[in-house]
Specification:
Length: 178
């Protein structure tokens, strides 16, 4: 599958007047920006699979309205429910590494729970990225992803082994039209 469009999770990128807003509002926008990775992944997937732009803020409103956010982060089932309302199949589920590889080879996308920048330090999860392909390069297998952070603008693939180190075994599987 081709690379999904980059969608930034930081809300201020869509607000030209961000710097002139009251401090309390910019703090609120900053708070939600660092928690909007899954929403940005959903927006990117909708652009790729359906050709429609659904803003991070629109997805935020829809997901929050159905109890999709807790102190631990976004509830995958509710995020999948919101994504499904836009015409694609979305299912939250536990996933083994083998299932991730199989789904990527059958042109499905996955919003996967990983640790930011894929460290191999024992941490797993806490950040969501959009997986879109499995590639063989330089004698190794790589998982290709769209990461909605600033780091993700220039990083698009990680070895299967490094991905496995930070993958929480949870995700949302996405495929074309319902």
């Amino acid at each position: 599958m081709k690379r999904p469009p980059y969608v930034c999770q930081y809300w201020h990128t869509e607000l030209k007047e961000f710097h002139s807003l009251p401090a309390s509002l910019t703090e609120l926008l900053d708070f939600w920006s660092v928690r909007s990775c899954g929403l940005a992944c959903a927006s990117s997937a909708l652009l790729l699979l359906e050709g429609i732009h659904v803003s991070v803020q629109t997805l935020f409103n829809a997901c929050v309205s159905i109890g999709g956010y807790t102190a631990q982060g976004w509830r995958h089932a509710q995020l999948a429910q919101v994504i499904s309302t836009h015409g694609i199949t979305a299912q939250a589920m536990p996933l083994s590494l083998e299932q991730v590889i199989e789904k990527l080879t059958t042109s499905q996308l996955i919003i996967a729970s990983v640790t930011h920048k894929f460290p191999c330090d024992g941490r797993r999860g806490g950040h969501l990225v959009l997986l879109y392909a499995l590639r063989n390069m330089f004698g190794q297998r790589f998982i290709c992803f769209m990461d909605p952070t600033t780091w993700g603008k220039t990083h698009h693939a990680v070895t299967v082994e490094q991905f496995s180190c930070s993958f929480s075994m949870k995700g949302i599987v996405l495929s074309g039209r319902v």
